[in-house]
Write a structure and sequence with these properties.
The protein is built from seven helices and three strands, in the order ααβααββααα. The protein has 174 residues and is mainly alpha-helical. Helix 1 packs antiparallel against helix 5 and helix 2 packs across helix 4. It is globular, with a radius of gyration of 20 Å.
Length: 174
Amino acid sequence: MADIKSPVNPLFLREEEIRQGIELLFYAYRGFTAEPDALLATLGLGRAHHRALYFVGRHPEITVSALLAILRITKQSLGRVLNDLIERGYVEQQQGQRDRRQRLLTLTDKGAALERQLFESQRKLIGQAYRNAGAEAVDGFRKVLEGLIALSEPAAAMEEEPEAPAPAPRVASR
């Protein structure tokens, strides 16, 4: 017997549905960044600092070039952010052992504490939204985000960028 599948409902592809999805992304990002932005503002820091802290924390000893590839900002912009974070004691920079031209970035204890505080505010939001939506919705959400990333990254640029280091191993919290 033939497997009868109902056709995919294309209603989610209508302009109004697409506009609603875009609008929801804007509102979600606004809510997702509100608490970290407020904390960063008290320290005289901004979202660029937050992104740098996050990825340096996720990839200890990341090279400046790999961080540039992830953030897709100019060297000049990243230089200002990194100099600020280094001067304030949040990030430290060391020469590479194999290649002395490399600058390896790591969070200091102070930087790790700030990154953790920023992460915790966002973890609460994402965690609650994930719990409310359920596993199937979380999987669908991840697929949509991965699809947006894949569609927005030119294939040629992806081949030229240095590969970011593997994520740091996860440690079970007690």
